[in-house]
């Protein structure tokens, strides 16, 4: 019986290494999702709060605000767009309700969009808003935090 050639052993080692890397990346994202589901000090998780704000604001969204939200989430890859729309809508709803508004308007959308966006993405957020002609000057102070 012949031994396996050297190139075949290297081939197996290469794919084992690739599998370990892919499993590590997948595990990282699964762990991040798990952290969002853990309850905080108030007993609700981040996802519970998102659902709370979205459900509470259902009747406050006029058609132009929904269309503007779709414009804001357009740069998000399509695979993640629904999740991003939900989390951004939750932050917009929170901003609108805390301000005492009866309807979500464009200003609430801009502020909520900035607050929902992670700091690491502020550069692309500003580029996108400039490209779309969206005036975010009243909320520029939020980008410096």
UniProtKB/TrEMBL annotation:
Organism domain of life: Bacteria
Keyword Transmembrane: yes
Residue stretches spanning the membrane: 12-31
Pfam families in the record: DUF2621 (PF11084)
The entry's keywords: Membrane, Transmembrane, Transmembrane helix
Name of the protein: DUF2621 family protein
